[in-house]
Predict the structure.
Amino acid sequence: MTTVPLPERPDLGQLRKQAKELHRATPGGTLADAQRTLARRYGFASWPRLQRHVEALNSRTWVYTEPAGAESPAARFLRLACLNFAEDAPDRWVEAARLRHQHPDLPATSIAVAAACADVPALHQHLAAGASAVKPAAPFDWPPLMYLAYARLEVSQEDTLAAARLLLDAGADPNDGRFFLGLPTPFTVLTGALGGGEEDQPPHPHSIALARLLLNAGADPNDGQSLYNRMFTEQDDFAELLLEFGLGQGDGGPWRRLVPDLIGSPEELVRGLLHWAVTHDQRQRVALLAAHGVDVTSPLADGATPLEHALRNGHRKLAKQLRDLNAPEPKLDPVDTFVAAALAGDRAEVEATPAHIVDAARAARPGLLVWAAAQHRPEAVKLLVDKGFDINARGRGDMPLEHPWQTALHTAIQVGDTDLVRLLLELGADPGLRDCRFDGDARSWAEHFDRAEVLDLLGP
């Protein structure tokens, strides 16, 4: 059965209503049959598992909202000081630091503020007075340890670790977290410490030391959101640490036990990290995973091997690396062979490809130029344009998938490749075309990403 995702913040009452409607539309079946069918449609083994998941999600869901009215200085400070994955910006953290300077007594007013500031004396006073190390506090309904991990203030490592130890010794849960927007992968304390994400949110100033402390205290290293948030860049300090503590092993910890149907197993999580690495030519990460015993030769979740992914995306150095690790040689079909040669900038092999194969590649991969731009491949861009690929076609820049999101020009602006922007314009890219997700032209993308040189190229 084809599954569909649950809606954000799923409502159990609405799901019960759907099950009743399905029951009425299925003569001869029981309500239990309809509930089971509905559960499986959403990817769950049974109705009780779906119920349990929705109850767990709704009891821990977190959605960032601006305050409806005035809020206390403590709540305002925490709102500004902490990552929220909705309105994150450096000026918010600067404003938080200014508020603390203006109100030096803020840590004394709230254990959550004391935690975010890593104010050890204030934490001692709060705990001695009976304050809870686990009770959620405004504005995000987080426990103090989450505020500490998500805060982006200039604090010393010594104070950060001392504050975290105090809270852990007082009963704080190193695996605590929330479901951001009701999504099934929890944003945990560890997620906050390690930072990252689609907007490249910064890690905690002492992220690795803090994460090590949390892992030593029992945080599970199979943290799916941390892996997702940090997979986009080449920096591997997070992966080295998580592998040291058992990433890819164990049962997945308390969160997988709580919502087992939609959180991947430890092996699935680490191989997902491998999948991204081989698709994006992260050779150092592949070597790191292999050195820690991760299988880098057998097929991934989509059925293709890591070496197949490397070859299809023109990553020839990575392909050699995988062959040296005894990866079996795959056989690519003619279209994939052409795409691989084009992305690798191999003009001789591209020119030797029969015209009907090139035609088939254009039909199968109309947005290939977008992917080439995302990979900073000017030679591939020129080869593909020479072979008739539409320079203004839309595709995805984050994965080699044919979804019509944006043009190659949008993508070159996004990744900050001014030379590639210049090349695309010379080859006929239309700066007036708008992307299909944000409805922005080249100029608006350059303004959004603060690309002054691109704005100069685009002219008045």
Notes: The longest strand covers residues 177-180. The two ends are 54 Å apart (CA to CA). The mean pLDDT is 95. The beta strands are 61-62, 177-180, 187-188, 394-395, 406-407.
